Amino acid sequence: MSKPVIAIDMGGTKIKAGIVQQGIIHSSLSIDADSGNGLRQRLPHLQEAIESLLNQEGLSTAEIAGLGIASPGIVDSIQKKILSIDKKFGDAPGIDLEEWCLKTFNIPFCIENDARSSLWGEWKYGKAKNYDNAAIITLGTGVGSAAIIGGKLLKGKHFTAGILGGHSVINYNGRICNCGNKGCVETEASTWNVETIAKSDINFAESPLTHAPVIDYELVFRLAAEGDQVALRIREQSVKAWSACAINLIHAYDPEILLFTGGIMASSTQIIPFIRQHIEKHAWTPWGTVHIEEGVFPGTAALLGIAHLTEHS
């Protein structure tokens, strides 16, 4: 049996870490990402979390095959570096994470984009495992994407292929995005911008959202189900934005299946049926219908995927 792997998923809100072996997460925990203050200041806390997991499992680093990080942003998986990142963990491109891994744990290191890792996890163990052509949209702090074509992860010459679905333009008159572009999917519908979207609604002052300490999609979808008009408008705008993103990916990558995953999919019953109907009506797929499904592992696909990539790197 192969050795277990330390898998890390660098989310914008939480950093998850787990001990993974052959598709099974034996133990895991999460720490606050505090991503606005950079990654370097979180590394000691991440080290403590990993050491806690190892102690919990009764493992030494000699019994670990490697450490893998699923990171947001543009990742060079060959040189094992984060090349560029959108606001979250802004100092990450200047950190030699492989050196940190070797100095701290003395084990091999692997890194890949988080959406690619999520798709790989679903392709190996989840809904996409019977398809050679698949794509994914991750709905969380931002909007991620990735594609597998002919059984291979799409990466491209400069490691950007497939992963910038959240920065495809769906409203050229829209707001400026964190990336500097205008009218990206993320500016129209993502957790990092949903509060701004809500406050721009003409009836915001009359909505229960006004009194919320934090405006997130869990609250938006709950209030929409209760009939709040502002929340209903945000929900409609968001599912339309995600549907437009989905059609862009379908037209670009010709997948047999398109998966949705991420924290926002806690409200999947309000998301998937609309997107499925929208795609069936508007996507140009004369060969048939793309399967639109929720991922099996909405919270752990990236851990499973980066663990597998690390184990086989």
TrEMBL record:
Pfam families xref list: ROK
Which residue ranges does UniProt annotate as crossing the membrane?
none
Q: Which InterPro entries match?
A: ATPase_NBD, ROK
Q: State the family it belongs to.
A: Belongs to the ROK (NagC/XylR) family.
Instruction: State the name under which the record lists this protein.
Output: ROK family protein
Give the originating organism: Chryseobacterium pennipullorum
